[in-house]
Amino acid sequence: GFIIWPREFTLENYKAAFQNKDILQAFKISVIITIVGTAINVILTGMAAYALTFKKMPLRNFIIFMIFIPTVFSGGVVPTYILYRRLHLLTSIWIYMLPGLYGFFNIVIMRTFFESIPIGLSEAAYIDGCSEVGIFFKIILPLSKPIIATMVLFIAVAQWNDWYTGAFYVTKDSIRPAATLLQQILNEADVMSNISTLNEQNIYLSASDMQRTVTPDSLRMTFVMIITLPIVCVYPFLQKYFVKGVMIGSIK
């Protein structure tokens, strides 16, 4: 049964988890797609948002409309799967990053913040011979650290928690992220069957020790903690930016 206070302190569940190669590989994939995907997404979203701040930009309203449409309408799982297959993404780690290189909501938030920056700064830099790319990277981005931190948090959390892509589209087990592995484990009736390589990893636990310290329920909770802890550790440092970003979006 369940007890409020544990009988003894033990890390056997964490040892069992981290000595499993599948879990370590899934965690590695999650770290890669979170760092790389977030960096690319923030840069491209920022560039798109900056371009859309110019009201005289050709086809500006049409571009905004085309960006907005996929937010409302989705092609569905089957058409998306066919598209990914034709793009040879089903066995590539880029399947987690390329389809979500921008988000309409994130573009709106960043554009709103960029519009609050005095245009005189950009005009002065342009008169001094600075290009639009230079203005964006040397003036706009350094003044936009709060909104960049907000976008990093938004996008990183979305990338880290993306179990859907790995569960429905990816056909290669070695590139499935930790969130997908966690979802599979939580759906398994017996967690032990999902980590059948424990004995091969030289984890020598007696039958009584295994029953007492490593149980299906305890392993489930261990995996939940492993997946949740990175975001929990990062969030307090970005909380004020997170609230500010939400306020900007709600006002818009």
Automatic annotation (TrEMBL):
Signal sequence region: none
Which regions span the lipid bilayer? Answer: 29-50, 62-82, 94-114, 135-160, 219-238
PROSITE patterns (UniProt xref)? ABC_TM1
Any GO BP? transmembrane transport
Q: How does it sit in the membrane?
A: Multi-pass membrane protein
Instruction: Tell whether Transport is among the UniProt keywords.
Output: yes
Give the principal location in a single coarse category. membrane
- Give a single Pfam family match: BPD_transp_1
Location comes to: Cell membrane
Every ABC transmembrane type-1 domain range: 27-231
Q: List keywords of the entry alphabetically.
A: Cell membrane, Membrane, Transmembrane, Transmembrane helix, Transport
> Would you name any one GO CC term?
plasma membrane
The answer on whether this UniProt entry bears the keyword Phosphoprotein reads: no
PANTHER family in the cross-refs: ABC TRANSPORTER PERMEASE PROTEIN MG189-RELATED-RELATED, POLYGALACTURONAN_RHAMNOGALACTURONAN TRANSPORT SYSTEM PERMEASE PROTEIN YTCP
Protein family (similarity comment): Belongs to the binding-protein-dependent transport system permease family.
Q: What is this protein called?
A: Carbohydrate ABC transporter permease
